[in-house]
Design goal:
2,3-Dihydroxybiphenyl 1,2-Dioxygenase, domain 1; alpha+beta; VOC family protein; 4 helices; 7-stranded mixed β-sheet; 2 domains; 8-stranded mixed β-sheet
């Protein structure tokens, strides 16, 4: 089991969470689809649920909250990049042209977080660990396996994420339309051109979950009210699909090709 037992290096995707209009329905959906276990958390944390897979943290699911008079936030998965200093990273994000959506906030003794958008508009979170460092299991069926930036300007994204996090974005060998995100020489995610998405799609980060059988999991998703955005297909990294949960949150699922 690919367990994670220590904090993630700065710039590495370390956590994902979902803000949804029906938390219990989402908990039930992802339990049935991916095998997660979770329940609404304490009121002091807004009911935030830390879901587990095999007894280790895998993702967060929380009820949507909006300030009075403000529209509800979108129902999407948000990925978090690790840092050792949230305040310094916030300053670097602003200096590099990013937009703060939620400034640095303490989350009890668990850690510190912020939400921001890159200059092209892709939203992401930042997590500075305290007692909680993020996902305790990755890269196995039911868990996070990949994070992918869909951007309208790859060179600009390269400059931004390099300045703010030290992430290197380099062309993937053998293709001129996909890029690797690297931290300390290790690949931690990917990037692709937004032009390859359906017209009108805004810049975003796409979350990938690993599954044992893409086609069977898609069938299970549809039976539980989910939507298929891109039917299962084979590609260089494996067999994958892009889907949305019953409340519209998009994500991808992949069965990796044998190494």
């Amino acid at each position: 089991m690919p367990e994670v037992t220590e904090p993630y290096p700065t710039g590495t995707p370390c956590w994902i969470d979902l803000m949804t209009p029906d938390q219990q329905a989402a908990l039930d959906f992802y339990r049935d689809l991916l095998g997660w276990q979770g329940q609404a958390g304490p009121a002091e944390y807004g009911g935030y649920a830390v879901c587990e897979l095999h007894g280790r943290p895998v993702a967060g699911i929380a009820p949507q909250h909006a300030p009075e008079g403000a529209p509800e936030p979108p129902t999407v998965w948000t990925g978090y990049l690790a840092t050792t200093d949230a305040q310094a990273t916030q300053d670097a994000i602003v200096s590099a042209g990013g937009t703060l959506l939620l400034p640095v906030t303490d989350v009890g003794r668990l850690g510190r977080m912020l939400l921001a958008a890159d200059p092209q508009g892709a939203v992401f979170g930042v997590w500075q660990p305290g007692e909680f460092f993020g996902a305790g299991v990755v890269n196995e069926p039911g868990a996070l396996i990949w994070n992918e930036l869909h951007t309208s300007d790859v060179p600009a994204a390269t400059g931004f994420y390099g300045e703010a996090f030290g992430i290197e974005i380099e062309p993937m060998e053998g293709t001129d339309s996909y890029w690797e995100l690297r931290v300390g020489g290790r690949t931690v995610g990917g990037a692709t051109r937004l032009a390859d998405d359906p017209p009108g799609t805004p810049p975003h980060w796409l979350t990938y979950f690993a599954v044992d059988d893409v086609d069977a999991t898609v069938d299970a998703l549809v039976k539980r009210g989910g939507t298929v955005l891109a039917p299962p297909f084979d590609m260089v990294a494996g067999r994958m699909t892009v889907v949305a949960d019953p409340h519209g949150a998009p994500f991808a699922m992949i069965k990796p090709a044998p190494m």
